[in-house]
Amino acid sequence: QVHLAESGGGFVQPGGSLELSCAASTSSFSFDQFDRMGWYRQAPGNDERRAVAVFTGQGVPVYADSVRGRFTISRDNTKNRIYLQVNSAIPEDTAVYYCYLAKDRRDYWGQGTQVTVSS
Fold this sequence. Notes:
Blueprint (H helix, E strand, L loop, with lengths): L1 E6 L2 E3 L5 E9 L9 E7 L7 E6 L5 E3 L7 E6 L4 E6 L8 E9 L2 E4 L3 E5 L2
Parallel strand pairs: 2-11
Antiparallel strand pairs: 1-3, 3-8, 4-5, 4-9, 5-6, 7-8, 9-10, 9-11
């Protein structure tokens, strides 16, 4: 069983920063033995969730072009947590952000946390 729970969303002004956190419980495998793990987002009026920042199975971070240089993904294997640091926020970053983990061809999602960038 895998359970993912996001926190840290909210309102931020353009140019501001915030940090998202995802607590993961992985009873059937070790937290660091994932295939892919990271963050997706779904913008208002858009049906598609798009990858924002993801760790590959080799632990290499991969960023969407729209956030590269502004967002940073990290993880703490001792706490079973992954983080997304959002800097230089822009209104286009407004979305529901989802924590994601893939293991053995199965996808797992958190419930999502809203981030709104507005003045």
